[in-house]
Amino acid sequence: MVFQSASQTIHAPHSPDAQGASARRSYTRHRPEETILYNVIQRELEFFLARAQAREQPVPRFVEQEFRAFLRCGILAHGFLRLHCDDCGFDRLVPFSCKRRGFCPSCGGHRMADTAAHLVDRVLPEVPIRQWVLTLPYPLRYRCAYDARLTSEVLRAFLRALFAELRRRARKLWEMRAPQCGAISFIQRFGSALNLNLHFHTLALDGAYADDGCSGAAPRFLPLPPPDDDAVARVLAGTARRLRRIVAKRAAEREDALARDEPLLALLAAASLRGRSASGPNEGERWRRLGDRVEPATGNDDPEASPRIPQHGGLSLHAAVAVPARDRRRLERLCRYVARPPLANDRLEVHPDGRLALRLKTRWRDGTSHILMERSELIDRLVPLIPPPRAHQVRYHGILAPCASGRDSIVPARAADFAVAGRGPGPASMPSIELSASAAPRGAQTTRGGAGIGVENASDGTERHPSASAAAAPEADPHGHLPDRTIRRRYRWAQLLQRVFDIDALRCPRCGSTLRLIAAIEDPAVARRILDCLNLPARSPPVEPAPWATIPANPVAPDRGADWEFDQSRPAREDSDVS
After folding, report:
1. Of 46, 138, 172, 567, which cross-links 546 as Cys (Cβ 3.0–4.6 Å)?
2. Which long-range contacts (CB under 8 A, 24 or more apart) does 37-41 make?
3. At what angle do helices 36-54 and 61-72 cross, to 10 degrees?
């Protein structure tokens, strides 16, 4: 299902007055075809693919699938769920989503809210949590962008240095014999300017668990005071020392495997790292900036870096954000921040001259507030932000690892504790709208020539087919509730809307009754007939063909210079637009 933009995150209030206001709020379907992002990709995608083919730099399959799935996300013509109110006859159509993990603001917001809710309710214990942010040197960002093994080695080196420092302090303060640490890491590929900036956000337990030695007893958590500058510097130095060993092992790998196997990805990644345009009329030039520009204190620093953050050989480490124990609402906000998507729809604006202006989340130290780009450059910026397939972006470490001994004794609750009347944690009266075909209410419509259908799960992205689950499928009551034995890892679409935006998507706007699922429409012909009857667009917006006459010949390859020195400096500044 389609989720709203990640930039509109709010918390569900708990006061009676706020709950009354919540009941008056209604759900409005997201219309991606009206956004700037959708319109630009709709017009420029075929030109991008044709240009890459003409230059003999074919687009990888997973990248093309990401863009084509985005153009189908939230479009009613590609399928939807039909919800019906039995009291007043009101119908609501909920379109299917793409469930991709690249740049889609809607699905990224859905995944952000779901991951944060899962971590707060089921994984992170009620202890102090500290965020550690590790930024890598530019050459290492390029190497790790499409090398999952190297990324894992770099992250492992950082976690070993961090856990070593936490254990050292725990032994010194509490005289622990075998302290146990835990953390969850998020691999982010993007910066605020839609640039390739692979870095790590790690939520670490701000302390350590001590085993009392009693059989069956839960370990005790002993908190640590905030780390001082020396402690952060030790973690940074330990990480750099381990990374040098990793670099030394790969010193013989002089050939750029990415440029050899995927020249287009190598070109766009290098251009994104160096802040240069890879195509268009400004090909090879520095990105244009807007804002009240001032000269920074030092001319060769990363514009997003802070001078107060410790740096060592191109690495930087930030550890000033912490959440106290039992402050779960603040912890959930922090989890949403580290799991956020790279782009929100409201950050993309149209400049008066017709170009696109990307509004930065926060102003850079030199006063830059917007990045100016041609419409044809947007896809070039988005491609490096798409993670490669089969590369996990969330990692669990230490006592929070999936198979760690003692994990079950410290997490807030097991998954089985949340299977209460077929509901996960959230509003107790929230009915289910994700049912298998055999469990659908009587009278539910089917598609594909009248055969049984697989109802798409709005939460976990799975598709249930009656051939695999008809015999074991639980029977549902008339309101669509599942029995108690159902266990879910993901939260339902309606629960997340209620939890994040305080909107009850299953409440009828006319009479206030609960909407019921009556059909899952996947057949385009059936969807077209229903949409025509409801006077809604029955066809998806067409993708514009590529104008072959305007495809340039060869690209200007930016200087990658991806050596293995830890150099954080940027090229010399060039003139840019100032407003």
Report:
1. 46
2. 37/105, 37/343, 37/345, 37/348, 37/378, 38/70, 38/71, 38/541, 40/356, 40/375, 40/378, 40/379, 41/67, 41/70, 41/71, 41/378, 41/379
3. 150
DSSP assignment of 409-461, as one string?
GTSS--GGGG-BTTB-SS-TT-------GGGSPTT-B--STT---PEEPTTT-
User: Tens-of-pLDDT digits for all 579 residues of the chain?
Assistant: 554 433 333 333 333 344 444 445 678 888 999 999 999 999 999 999 999 999 899 999 999 999 999 999 999 999 999 999 999 999 999 999 999 999 999 999 999 999 999 999 999 999 999 999 999 999 999 999 999 999 999 999 999 999 999 999 999 998 888 899 999 999 999 999 999 999 999 999 999 999 766 666 788 999 999 999 999 999 999 999 999 999 998 887 778 899 999 999 999 999 999 999 998 888 999 999 998 766 654 544 566 666 657 777 789 999 999 999 999 999 999 999 999 999 999 999 999 999 999 999 888 888 899 999 999 999 999 999 999 999 999 999 999 999 898 898 899 865 334 434 344 444 333 344 443 333 333 334 443 333 322 233 333 333 333 333 333 333 444 444 444 444 567 888 889 999 998 899 999 999 989 999 999 999 999 999 999 998 998 898 998 887 765 666 555 554 444 443 444 444 444 444 433
- For the purposes of burial, counting CB atoms within 10 Å of the CB of 83, is it exposed (0-12), middle (13-18) or buried (19 or more)? buried
The whole-angstrom separation of Cα 545 and Cα 133 is 43
> Which pTM does this prediction carry?
0.80
Compute the CA torsion angle 298, 299, 304, 309 (nearest 10 deg): -30
DSSP element (H, E) containing 125: none
For the four alpha carbons of 228, 230, 231 and 237, in that order, the dihedral sign comes to: positive
Task: Give residue for tokens 């044809």.
Answer: 376
- In sequence order, the β-bridge partners of residue 435 are none
Separation between Cα atoms, residue 135 and residue 138, nearest integer Å: 9
Task: Determine contact, residues 325/127, Cβ cutoff 8 Å.
Answer: yes
Q: 51: which 2 tokens?
A: 């240009």
- Give the separation between CA 61 and CA 68, rounded to whole angstroms: 11
CA 204 to chain CA mean position, Å: 19
**Total residues found in the chain within this entry:** 579
User: Which helix H or strand E contains 185, and what residues bound it?
Assistant: strand 182-190
Instruction: List Cβ neighbours of 427 (8 Å cut-off, separation of 6 or more).
Output: 495, 498, 499, 504
